[in-house]
Design brief:
There is one protein chain. The chain has helices spanning 2-10, 17-30, 33-42, 44-51, 60-77, 86-105, 111-114, 123-127, 134-138. With 139 residues, the protein is mainly alpha-helical. The chain folds into two domains: 2-108, Four Helix Bundle (Hemerythrin (Met), subunit A), CATH 1.20.120; 110-139, no CATH class.
């Protein structure tokens, strides 16, 4: 299933800067839903890049759906007048939705979340609402 998704993404054309500006203007100023849809389609590979490390998980396609919701939220909230690149804005929403989903799944084995970062904390610890217990640290 994930490989079929990869094939579809290879056909997605990147937006030229002037085309992207025109699409944002059409969507934000006129509510053009076709422009909105084209922006979402053009940035779908961003979702793939965020989910790719988890592609072997049984819930990978569910994570893609969650990431797409994050992308849609980013499109809704983005203000092109601020001058920041949309991809820089959207990646945080997409990544957050994917990680929140994987954390909610709970029973999913996430070895990449167990690896230590440069600050000697695991990504799982950074995602948790409270620090690990002594028993969890001892395990």
């Amino acid at each position: 299933m994930f490989s079929a998704y990869m094939k579809k993404l290879s056909a997605v054309q990147k937006l030229a800067p002037e085309e992207e500006r025109a699409l944002w203007r059409a969507y934000k100023e006129n509510g053009d839903m076709a422009a909105r849809r084209r922006i979402i389609e053009a940035y779908q590979p961003l979702v793939f890049r965020e989910v790719y490390p988890y592609r072997a998980l049984p819930a990978a396609m569910d994570a893609v759906q969650e990431g797409t919701i994050g992308l849609i939220e980013a499109v809704e909230r983005y203000d092109p007048d601020y001058g920041a690149a949309f991809s820089l804005y959207a990646v945080h929403r997409v990544r957050g939705r994917v990680r929140d989903f994987l954390r909610r799944e709970g029973n999913v084995d996430l070895p990449c979340l167990e690896a230590e970062t440069e600050s000697h904390e695991t990504a799982k610890e950074l995602l948790m609402d409270e620090p690990p217990s002594v028993a969890e640290l001892a395990a």
